Amino acid sequence: MATAISQNGWSVIFTATDKNTTKIPHIVGRVRAGDVATIFTALVNFIHAHVEDVSKGADDWGGNVRPIRGKTTGYSNHASYTAIDINALQHPRGVEGTWTPAQASAIRQFLKDTLEGVVRFGEDYSRKLSLVDGMHFEINANAAAVARVAAKLRGEKAPSTTGKTPAKTPAITAATGSTTLLYQGNPKNSAARVRKLQAGLNRAFPAYSKFAGGGDGKFGPYAAQVVKEFQRRSGLKPDGVVGPTTIKGLRKHGINL
Hints:
Blueprint: E1 21-22, E2 31-32, H1 35-50, E3 83-85, H2 101-113, E4 119-121, E5 136-139, H3 143-154, H4 191-204, H5 221-233, H6 244-251
Antiparallel strand pairs: 1-2, 3-5, 4-5
Helix pairs in contact: 1-2, 1-3
């Protein structure tokens, strides 16, 4: 029997308790386990920390086997557990402008810079094809692209494209400290490491790094802005994520994380 596929090309999971589903913070129900869960966790935590509260009620939804809304055929991406709805009652389908321009801009920037476009925002649906759906976020890429972004978020070596499973080798040696990424919205950010980053940037780049008191240990929008400026001036991808390449660049300036 042919495998059922949702709109984005991922296989439908018919049982919520399937081993390929898991719980993530804030979301009622479950999402696809593994790389999808890693990406959605980063997204939900970012929105909760920097855009709006995602703990106001039980209107943050995950997987659900059903057709695409408004259609009698074709599985929704919720059916493959690759879609979530955030603050659904505040951002109902078909209603435009429920996110403020600043909120929508922050979300789009995170989707572009940190998640590298593997998640689509329902606010950006083409008006010719579908109603705007501000609550909705869905995986919009294949498994290989999703795996690559998830590996970046976890601070791991990017998955091999040869079909072999790569070892989870730290990108830098243990002597240089933790290899966990630092980025806005990451629940695993170490306050001590963020403070060391802030103090180091202040010391090395006072022209554009001005953390009050040497830093508060919180990786917020200003920290992301300063990191991006460092990355731009260092010829690195300005994504605001302090990963292996950026860590190596910082070390050249005496900032050891």
